[in-house]
């Protein structure tokens, strides 16, 4: 088990810069999730850590060792691949034993290790099968088993759940979390799914275009997104955004409505009178009319979800989505009066799109 | 929709008028299958089953066009003749020896070529092209070129040997050297075919397996024996089947390089069949020889197929 650190990590293909100076310290036993849209360089970063991709500039350390030039086998990491990369001609047992055999560990020691890992993952009855005789979920488990038996310093996962159906994905997600709690090894996990990131991570690293947008605990990135991008990326349904201007202690939407600035925020943005901002409000932070600050709009579409109701409504020029109690079922076209808690309103600079309050 | 309405039409006709051919217009599944297979079956019968049966039939006959006698049934005479024919034994032995040398030889060279061609070159076409050219070259053409290469005076092989301080060899005067020259030529000519099939096999192995093996700690050599080779087995067996069967039928290269000489020391079974049927016009004996070659090929194929099945 070991810490990992990236210092000014760079990757370019020719003149194309893919990873643009990543600085990140990952503590021992931490579960860190790299998340971001497709093509933002998550896999590339992970593969540089694994030694499968060369490093263009900067430094990677595992523990105290700089591993820039080390081949994968000397880095003491284990990786679970998106397509699992199980050896098709070897049985499950042989797949799990391979790395140990290569390292010259005696079969007397290999056997109990595999038995233990197989027990933990519930794949003991599958040990004699070939990968082609397994279901997707079972293959996924075998791939994890192959990583576990190694007892490496760091586990790397590259989108390990993307080939599973939605239900199984939830199940295996829980299992991965339990696994981390049981063995405590440092895990670096790549995904483009913010739900996986939120549920699994001790800390989330949000990447955009090869750069770190924000690093924080799931609560931090959810409650205080550092930018419009993070606000929109984390949370589902996505955060509402509307253009506005700060005037006299309140933020006024293009449509005319206004929300008073939260005391705390007001203090911070006091010097910003007249500035153009982007206002971010999460759908779940609307409250029944009468609580919070009242807004009125016009209902466009209503989506009942059972557990709650989504209301899409027009507010001036913008369309916003509110998640409200299931009993609330207005009809399209109706006037809507709904409250918003000013303390949960996010403000971003309109030009830089970075957070300016809270 | 078109098919559905046609079927209805046919059914109606079938109920009113009952001409025999209406059965073919609304066939049961069994009849339909038979009808669909019929053209292929006929074609195969015409070009494979009939010639093979005819060959076997001829091998039981006295049929020599030089004797002026009409064909007569000979029973197993042609076959018993064969047992006492030293040329038959020699050419068969040569054929088997060529197979035993050139098939593994071409496999090894082909494997090496395929591994090289599979390296991540920036420009791939020259490599692929140089694999395709020997394969596309006609056999007899390769034989003629290499006959020149091995020429005792003007050949490039002797030239190189002399330059590095050896004496030149008069290749085609000695049974062993001539045989060696033929085997080398065959390996050169056929290894590119092996390489092409193996290359296709190599490209089906996902790169992530090698990455997993890298992370698992296996070195290049280990990866070759534990991943590449086992996953190439099906491709290799297919290549071996094709290559072995053509090796048993070796004709063009020894024919153009040595005409079987010196003596009959480099003659193959196929050349002996050719000599008996085309030169001596003894169709009965020639056919019997050909039947032996056919049986040999079938036997080898059966062994390989069993190997594939055993591997699952
Ligand atoms: N060998 C290469 N040559 C050139 N560009 C490459 C190469 N490999 C990857 N890229 C580019 O690098 C960028 C980042 O790729 P990467 O695989 O890291 O994305 P990702 O964040 O993992 O995305 P995804 O979620 O789709 O897997 C992409 O724009 C990709 O096109
Ligand atoms: Mg990726």
UniProtKB/TrEMBL annotation, chain A:
Membership in a protein family: Belongs to the ABC transporter superfamily.
Database matches in Gene3D superfamilies: 2.40.50.100, Nucleic acid-binding proteins, P-loop containing nucleotide triphosphate hydrolases
Pfam families: ABC_tran, OB_MalK, TOBE
UniProt source species: Microvirga splendida
Keyword terms of this UniProt record: ATP-binding, Nucleotide-binding, Transport
Domain of life: Bacteria
Protein name as annotated: Sn-glycerol-3-phosphate ABC transporter ATP-binding protein UgpC
Keyword Nucleotide-binding: yes
InterPro entries, per database record: AAA+_ATPase, ABC_transporter-like_ATP-bd, ABC_transporter-like_CS, ABC_transpr_MalK-like, ABC_transpr_MalK/UgpC-like, Mo/tungstate-bd_C_term_dom, NA-bd_OB-fold, OB_MalK-like
Boundaries of every ABC transporter domain copy: 4-234
GO molecular function annotation: ATP binding
UniProtKB/TrEMBL annotation, chain B:
CDD domains xref list: TM_PBP2 (cd06261)
Protein keywords: Cell membrane, Membrane, Transmembrane, Transmembrane helix, Transport
NAD listed as a keyword: no
InterPro entries: MetI-like, MetI-like_sf
One protein family per Pfam: BPD_transp_1
Domain ABC transmembrane type-1: 92-304
Subcellular location: Cell membrane
Residues passing through the membrane, by range: 32-53, 96-117, 129-150, 170-188, 231-251, 285-305
Location, primary (coarse class): membrane
Membrane topology classification: Multi-pass membrane protein
Protein family per UniProt: Belongs to the binding-protein-dependent transport system permease family.
Protein name: Sugar ABC transporter permease
Organism: Microvirga splendida
């Amino acid at each position: 088990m070991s810490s990992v650190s990236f210092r000014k990590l760079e990757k370019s293909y020719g003149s194309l810069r893919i990873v643009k100076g990543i600085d990140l310290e990952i503590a021992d036993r931490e579960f860190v999730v790299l998340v971001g849209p497709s093509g933002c360089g998550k896999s590339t970063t992970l593969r540089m850590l694994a030694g499968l991709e060369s490093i263009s500039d900067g430094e990677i350390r595992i523990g105290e060792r700089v591993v820039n030039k080390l081949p994968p086998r000397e880095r003491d990491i284990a990786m679970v691949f998106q397509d699992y990369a199980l050896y098709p001609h070897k049985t499950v047992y042989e797949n799990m034993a391979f790395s140990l055999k290569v390292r010259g560990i005696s079969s007397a020691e290999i056997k109990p290790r595999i038995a233990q890992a197989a027990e933990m993952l519930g794949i003991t009855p599958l040990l004699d099968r070939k990968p082609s005789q397994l279901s997707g979920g079972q293959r996924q488990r075998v791939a994890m088993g192959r990583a576990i038996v190694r007892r490496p310093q760091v586990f790397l996962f590259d989108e390990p759940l993307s080939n599973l159906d939605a239900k199984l994905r939830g199940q295996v997600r829980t299992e991965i979390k339990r696994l981390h709690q049981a063995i405590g090894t440092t895990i670096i996990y790549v995904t483009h799914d913010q739900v996986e990131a939120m549920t699994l991570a001790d800390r989330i690293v949000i990447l955009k275009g090869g750069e770190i947008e924000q690093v924080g605990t799931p609560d931090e990135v959810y409650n205080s997104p550092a930018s419009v991008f993070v606000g929109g990326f984390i949370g589902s349904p996505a955060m509402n955004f509307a253009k506005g201007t700060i005037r006299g202690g309140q933020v006024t939407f293009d449509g005319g409505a206004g929300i008073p600035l939260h005391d705390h925020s007001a203090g911070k943005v006091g010097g910003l009178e007249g500035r153009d901002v982007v206002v971010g409000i999460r759908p779940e932070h609307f409250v029944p009319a009468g609580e919070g600050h009242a807004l009125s709009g016009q209902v466009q579409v209503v989506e009942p979800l059972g557990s709650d109701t989504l209301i899409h409504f027009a507010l001036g020029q913008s369309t916003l989505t509110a998640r409200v109690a299931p009993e609330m079922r207005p009809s399209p076209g109706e006037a809507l009066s709904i409250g918003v808690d000013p303390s949960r309103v996010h403000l971003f600079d309109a030009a830089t799109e970075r957070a300016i309050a809270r | 929709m078109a098919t559905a309405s046609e079927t209805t039409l046919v059914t109606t006709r079938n109920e009113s008028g009952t001409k025999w051919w209406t059965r073919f217009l609304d066939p049961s599944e069994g009849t339909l299958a038979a009808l669909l297979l019929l053209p292929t079956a006929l074609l195969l019968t015409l070009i494979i089953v009939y010639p093979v049966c005819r060959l076997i039939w001829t091998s039981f006959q006295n049929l020599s066009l030089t004797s002026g006698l009409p064909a007569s049934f000979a029973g197993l005479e042609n076959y018993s003749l064969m047992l006492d024919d030293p040329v038959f034994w020699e050419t068969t032995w040569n054929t088997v020896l060529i197979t035993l040398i050139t098939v593994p030889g071409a496999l090894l060279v082909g494997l090496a070529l395929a591994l090289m061609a599979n390296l991540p070159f920036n420009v791939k076409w020259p490599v692929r092209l140089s694999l395709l050219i020997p394969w596309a070259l006609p056999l007899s053409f390769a034989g003629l070129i290499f006959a020149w290469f091995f020429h005792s005076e003007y050949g490039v092989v002797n030239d190189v040997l002399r330059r590095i301080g050896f004496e030149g060899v008069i290749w085609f005067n000695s049974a062993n050297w001539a045989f060696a020259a033929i085997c080398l030529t065959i390996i050169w000519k056929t290894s590119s075919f092996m390489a092409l099939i193996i290359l296709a096999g190599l490209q089906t192995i996902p790169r992530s397996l090698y990455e997993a093996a890298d992370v698992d700690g296996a070195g290049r050599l280990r990866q070759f024996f534990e991943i590449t080779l086992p996953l190439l087995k099906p491709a290799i067996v297919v290549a071996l089947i094709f290559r072995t069967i053509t090796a048993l039928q070796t004709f063009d290269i020894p024919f153009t390089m040595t005409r079987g000489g010196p003596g009959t020391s480099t003659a193959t079974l196929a050349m002996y069949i050719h000599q008996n049927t085309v030169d001596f016009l003894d169709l009965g004996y020639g056919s019997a020889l050909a039947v032996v070659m056919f049986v040999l090929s079938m036997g080898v194929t059966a062994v390989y197929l069993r190997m594939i099945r055993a591997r699952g």
